[in-house]
Amino acid sequence: MENIEYYLFMLAAIIVAFLIIKRVVSCLVRSIVLIVLAVVLGYIYYMYLR
Question: What sections of the chain are H helices per DSSP?
Fold first, then answer.
């Protein structure tokens, strides 16, 4: 019976870790996209609109 409880606990921990990593990665990807967009817009401004 202890093995089943251990496996259920490990399964729950894996699912929670996956959900947390998924949220952090999506937030990180959004941040990277915003930074790249800001750099591109800054480049366009300084090269063409200045």
Answer: 2-44
Q: Distance between CA atoms of 13 and 38, rounded to whole angstroms?
A: 37
In degrees and rounded to multiples of 5, residue 19 shows phi and psi of -65, -40
Whether the model clears a pTM of 0.70, i.e. scores above it, the answer is no
Rounded Cα gap, residues 18 and 38, in angstroms: 30
Tell me: the pLDDT tens digits for 3-38? 788 788 888 989 998 888 888 888 888 889 889 999
CA distance 41 to 36: 9
The residue assigned the tokens 């800054």 is 42
Structure tokens given for 39:
């750099």
